[in-house]
Amino acid sequence: MRVPATVLCAAVTALLLSPAPALAHDALIASSPEDEQTLDSAPEEVRLTFSGRPMDVSTAVLVLDSESEAVATTEPLVEEHDVSVELPPEMADGGYAVRWRVVSSDGHPISGSFTFQVGEGGPPPPDLEAAPPMSPEEDDTDAAAAPATTGLPREAVLSLAGALIGLLFYTAYLRFRNAAGRVPRPAGQIVPNETETR
Q1: Cβ neighbours for 147, distance < 8 A, ≥ 6 positions apart
Q2: pTM value?
Q3: H or E element: which one contains 45?
Q4: Would you give the end-to-end CA distance of the chain in angstroms?
Q5: How far apart are CA 44 and CA 98, in angstroms?
Q6: Is 27:51 a contact under the CB 8 Å cutoff?
Q7: Contact call for residues 149 and 107 (beta carbons, < 8 A)
Q8: Closest Cα to residue 81, out of 48, 57, 112?
Q9: Cα(27)–Cα(53) distance, rounded to whole angstroms?
Q10: How far apart are CA 177 and CA 56, in angstroms?
Q11: How do the pLDDT tens digits run along the chain, 198 residues long?
C-alpha cells in the first residue's frame, strides 16, 4: 500500500513540532584541584570540567580562603566543556573553597562547591554553609538567560528537516518519472505481449 506524500509530510512535520522530554542537566565530572585534595604548592588556576558544554552566560566561580574572603581571580573562561579561572601567584598555605555556578547546556543553572588545601599547615577550609552566598542578582540573570527547552534538540531538528526535504524531492521525482512513462497510443492498437480480450 502506497502512503500519500502529503500524509508522510504531515507526520514528519508533527514530529518536528512535538515537545520532547526535558534534557538532563550537565554535571561536574572533574575539577582541578580535586575535591579535598592537598597540594604542595598553590595552583595556577581552578578548572571545572562538565559532562556537557555550559552556556557562556552568567558563569560564576568564587574562590574563598579560610576566612571566607574572596580570592582575586580572573573572569571565568568557558572553553568547550571546561570553565576556568586563574589564581593570584601568591596564595598562603591553608584551606580554600570553590563555589561555582554555570548555565547548563539545556538552559538551566546548576551549581556546586568543593574544597582543597595548600600545604600541610595553615587553617582549614571555610565552612561553606557559613560562607556568603552568590549574589541574588546573578540568580535573576541566570533565570532570564535560560531559554525554554521544550522541543527537540537542534541537531535532531536539522536531521528531520533534511529528511523531510529529501522526501519531497523523491516524491516529485517519482511523479515526474511516472508521468514521463505514460505514452498515449491510438485506440484499438495492441501492444506486443498484450492479449486482446474479446
Answers
A1: 107
A2: 0.59
A3: strand 45-50
A4: 31
A5: 14
A6: yes
A7: yes
A8: 48
A9: 10
A10: 51
A11: 454 555 555 555 555 454 444 456 889 999 999 999 999 999 999 999 999 999 999 899 999 999 999 999 999 999 999 999 999 988 999 999 999 999 998 899 999 999 999 998 889 999 887 666 665 444 444 444 444 343 445 455 556 667 777 777 677 767 767 776 665 555 555 555 555 444
Written as one string, the DSSP assignment of 68-137 is SPBPP-PPPEEETTEEEEEPPS---SEEEEEEEEEE-TTS-EEEEEEEEEESSSSPPPP-TTTSPPPPHH
Whose cell is 517519482? That residue is 174
The residue count of the chain comes to 198
Grid coordinates belonging to 28: 561536574
77 touches 85 (CB < 8 A): yes
Q: Are 129 and 147 in contact (CB under 8 A)?
A: no
Element (H, E) at 10: helix 5-17
Q: Cell for 124? A: 582549614
**Paired residues of 39 in beta bridges:** 118
Peptide bond into 33 cis (omega under 30): yes
